[in-house]
Amino acid sequence: MTAAWRVVLISDFNVGSLRGLLENDEAPPPLQVTTAPFGDVAAALVDPAHPALAAGADAAVVWTRPEGVVPSFGDLLAGRDAALESVLIEVDAFAAQLAAFATRVPRVLVPTWVVPTHLRGLGAIDLRPGGLARTLVEMNHRLLRRLDDLPAIVACDAQRWIAAVGPAAHDARAWYMGKIPFAAEVFREAAHDLKAALAASAGLGRKLIVVDLDDTLWGGLVGEVGWESLVLGGHDPVGEAFADVQRALQALRRRGILLAIASKNDETVALEALRRHPEMVLRPDDFVAWRIDWGDKAAHVAALARELNLDLDAVVFIDDSPAERARVREALPQVLVPEWPEQKLLRAAALQALRCFDVAAVSAEDRARSELYAAERRRGEARAAVTSVADWQRSLDLQVTVGTLARPDLKRVVQLLNKTNQMNLRTRRTTESELAAWAEGAGRRLWALRARDRFGDAGLIGVVSAERAGDAVHVVDFVLSCRVFGREIERVMVRTVVEHARAAGAATVVAEYLPTPRNAPTLEFWRRSGFAEQSGVFRWRASDPYLAPDFIAIEPAAG
Amino acid sequence: MADRAQVLAALYAALDDVNLQLPATSRLAKSEGTALLGDAAALDSLGFLNLVLAAETQVNARCAPPVNLAERLLELDESSLPATVGALATFVLELQGS
Q1: Are strands A456-469 and A59-63 parallel, antiparallel or unpaired?
Q2: From the first residue on, what is the mean pLDDT of each consecutive set of 10 residues in chain A (559 residues)?
Q3: Chain B nearest CA to A312, separation (Å)
Q4: Is the pTM above the cut of 0.80?
Q5: Is B22 on the interface with A (CB under 8 A)?
Q6: Rounded to an integer, what distance in angstroms lies between the CA atom of residue A189 and that of residue A110?
Q7: Rounded CA gap, A6 and A106, in Å?
Q8: Whole-angstrom distance between the N-terminal and C-terminal Cα of chain A?
Q9: CB A360 within 8 A of CB A200
Q10: At what angle do helices A16-24 and B45-62 cross, to 10 degrees?
């Protein structure tokens, strides 16, 4: 069981209702939530010795009313004039407090400012300069701009929570009786989004959607009616709705979510529909894998996850059939199986509302992930055409670039550290600011590895770091993307550390394996690495060179 | 006017709302005898306020005539506040009848 994250709620109103909702949310990570005394926002943000942070915090939520931290906005509420410049100076001051706070707390969630919908300000001209609504837009815009360069801080859209609840979102009874500005339903919406943001920062977002075809991607049974007669697109409400489901899946794919198919169909017939229907949004190349036959879908979902080197808790299964959903839920409880609306017109919205795909950042590798997997499928085909693994490895023309940590790589490096489970020596989870600070410490080095071969560029796929302690160099991080397992890149990573240790005059290289439920492949690698093992601790005499495979071309990173 | 069973159903729905915020070990049972105030109660002042607001919302959504539960409770001495779910149901029925 993962240790509970310590989360501190800091607010200028009574935010106690949020505490229990966050703690009761069963999705990982588990949370242990405390609340700072409300109204003490500035002190909690700027005072390193503030009691709210005495026990330390893994994350914080800083949720304020605009007039609570920007006094000039309070003037506007009272009907007095307030120059926008003055308002924005106060916004900047609040942003500076948040920036200072984020140096002490690794993850800070900041809901945007909202005002009760009954506040009409200047009425019909409230969006003109000087209006409440106009000023609030400018304030939120300024705050977001100031937070853009602070990766530890994530701004959350509170207006979405208000809109989801509707006219009852602001509860005057709760305000006068308890200094609670919002109805309980707003806190429920907020809790779901805040929890999803925290899970995203821990790399716990889902990575693969396995979809059914008939009556899920299109209307009708393709084996019965033929692809020409499927309900999809056209001037038809249901056809448009199915096309929108496909567009929503396509949008997720472009963000880095993988798509796969599990369908009870004839494969040739189903793939022909994907290729030939003129209004099909998703084509076969958009799917990284499929199982299209009459077999058990639960078995197929498990096989697809295995094939893609993903854990089942990274998988979402979507099917219009309640029976198939129940089967997968029962057989594979780690797989998320969302209820799928009976009404076809509501399905695209149901898909778009899922929070399980939230991520802390979207990198270029994320956007290219489907293509990376498609390249992997082509590698697999090439592998089938050669007689041995060694021949296959040699046939790849693999090139690995090794470079020390560069600022532009920081986001992807942290993403890899936080998301990778299987090839991960010590499973250190961290944030960009924490890692950047760590890497600057004396005696520490961190390298990022990129790989490319004749099938394409796999991008940044490995991270290895080391720290000097006495006459030994200790491996701190040893993380490799599951996409490139089996190509001996692990040996390049080991060589990188050994060469560093040799150059630094160290006597030994030490790698201590910290077991998790998922990182057994790491132990298997180190046991065949050539290092001497004693109870999960692996040692190499640094005076001995460590050879990487001769079929990998190793290049230093440019710059 | 609503009968006692309807009011209790509304109060139990309010308990469901409040239980979302309580630890599993402190959740309020759907029973007339469940304590809302005093040493035996699992609710702190914020929890009691949330229950009152949820109860007013649920009662007015399910039962006629509507009641002004929160404001009427504010008028009471602390010692006169309904201390159990059953006493709260009785209080709601009195408001509806008045």
Answers
A1: unpaired
A2: 87 94 91 89 91 89 96 93 95 96 94 93 92 97 95 94 94 93 96 94 90 96 91 92 97 94 93 95 94 93 92 95 93 95 96 91 74 75 71 85 89 88 90 90 94 85 95 96 84 96 95 91 93 95 93 82
A3: 28
A4: no
A5: yes
A6: 15
A7: 11
A8: 42
A9: yes
A10: 80
Structure tokens at A460: 């940044």
Q: Cβ(A399)–Cβ(A453) under 8 Å?
A: yes
C-alpha to C-alpha distance for A105 and A198, rounded to whole angstroms: 13
Gap between the Cα atoms of A301 and A333, Å rounded = 12
| Separation CA A68–CA A65 (nearest Å) | 5
> Distance, in angstroms, between A17 CA and closest chain B CA?
6
- Residue A261: strand pairing partners: A211, A290
Report the pLDDT value the prediction gives residue A237, as an integer from 0 to 100. Answer: 93
B70/A173 CB distance under 8 A: yes
The pLDDT value given to residue A558: 67
- Structure token digits, residue A375: 């390249």
Judging contacts by C-beta atoms under 8 Å, the chain B residues touching residue A177 are 49, 52-53, 70, 74
Residue to test with chain A: of B49, B60, B76, most A Cβ within 10 A:
B49
Check residue A352 and give its pLDDT: 96
Name the CA dihedral angle for A86, A92, A13, A10, rounded to a multiple of 10 degrees: -160
> How do A472-480 and A508-512 pair as beta strands?
parallel
Quick check: B54 contacting A, CB < 8 Å?
Answer: yes
